[in-house]
Amino acid sequence: MRKIVSAAQAIVDSLIEHGVDTIFGIPGVHTYKLFDALYERRREIRFIGSRHEQGAAYMAYGYAKSTGKVGVYTCVPGPGVLNTTAALCTAYAANAPVLCLTSEIPAADIGRGFGILHELPDQLATLRSLTKWSERIDHPTQAPHILAEAFRQMTSGRPGPVAVECPWDTLSVTALVDLSGPASALDPPPVDPGAVESAAELIKQSKRPMIMVGGGAVDASSEIAQLAELIQAPVTAHRSGRGIVGEDTLHGLGLAAAYKAWLETDLLIAIGTRMELQYLRWRKFPPNLKVVRIDIDPRELLRRPCDVGLVADAKLGVRALNASLAGSEAQRPSRAAEFASLKSQARTEYESVQPQVAYLDVIREVLPRDGFFVEEICQVGFTARFALPVYAPRTYVSCGYQDNLGFGFMTALGVKAANPDKVVISVCGDGGFMFGVQELATAVHNQINLISIVFNNRCFGNVLRDQKTAFDGHFIGESLTNPDFVKLAQSFGAKAYRAANPAELKSALTSALNDSGPVLIEVPSEPGAEASPWPFLHPWSAGR
Ligand SMILES: Cc1ncc(C[n+]2csc(CCOP(=O)(O)OP(=O)(O)O)c2C)c(N)n1
Fold first, then answer.
1. What is the pLDDT of residues 82-91, one digit of tens each?
2. Residue 444, ligand 1, Cβ within 6 A
3. What is the Å distance from ligand 1's center to 406 Cα?
């Protein structure tokens, strides 16, 4: 449809055409025109204002990670956009389709150093260094194409964040614009039958295969479960791949149980994963291990060596592999008893990681199968990576390899905004929670009914442990003075509880599930009281 519109109107139209229903952000003079266009279309697109741009970007990340759909945020240029960069690098790390929509100083002033409000030396270059793709809209007629390309980039091949900027004055320029419909994602690459055959051959020769899945396999649950059943392989994951094969099913193994089978594994089938778990966490490799990789990103196959690499969409690649194996694969003896025993041995061992495991048991008991758990860089978050079983894809939300303190609470708000009918539980330490504490106001203002559990040990617990064990107790920068979290949450208008032990957490969570607004639960403890989770995450070390 051709229409005379402003660049701002063309941008908002394109967002709606691409199915965007929510946009997070903070307005400012450079983006007033965009906000006016959002106002015009307010029945089709919901705006959720945050209290810091960082919060808006993490919310968009949580929206994207939990749904697989594009998460969008908007902010002013310069300091506004720089405030979002930790979330942008997280979206990059975790392959999340996040759109950063920002502005620029007036078009004719860009790069001239006049000292215009919110000017950066080269904002577009900065954004390009943080995203999969970034572009500037110089005229309204370009808006539909640039937005279409942005969506294509976010959703084709390996997903990732992108940024689009439109200068302050250009947002108001009007022109006859062809408001074309949504772009379609590029077709996945064709599956190479030769590579499938070679992979099938290696599988047939293997005796003890293991399947490792990452975020790239998130839409291939049934195909991977079928492969696991066919070849009697355990399926494990580190973070984004958790729940693709539920850890309560026969073949789904948490990483602690899987590690017990690792050194006897003769074939690793790595699907949509960087293999961070094997290369950077487990580190030791079984002798004579063969590796088959399936990945949609061809560059990925060059980073870590493999015996057979299949460039393919995970679903299509595994489907082809299953078809090639069907019939030829002699029925393998069931490994059910072995897997069950690995799980129970692992559980007995990691039960020593207290009190975190006891708290996680309560959370798992209360959280419905399809509820979301958002981890954080804290003792309970680290422990959850091996001690909280995950049952469904996308329900375990992490920050990928960035491990950036503070991402959790703000990300969880985006998860809940995208999934209002599902239970969402966020766990944070007192340190990480305070990175985004102001977003309690966003939760109350927008009735984002998240349940946040803050484990308050009055310190950066991980730092305290490291300084105690590796630096002879030279404590510096580890202790924290905190507010009364219950009173703080109540002062924002949220419901709050205090729970001093797992039983009290269970009753607080049970009440929280019936509360109608956002809830904070503070769990107080003493500094340094938590057992180290690291022996299970870094089994190569004696554990810190
Ligand atoms: C952005 C960022 N800053 C700093 C760190 C370093 N860091 C890792 S864990 C940690 C302490 C976390 O403390 P808290 O949130 O209270 O959780 P706890 O370990 O006490 O459970 C720090 C400072 C980080 N990972 N990311």
1. 999 999 999 9
2. no
3. 8
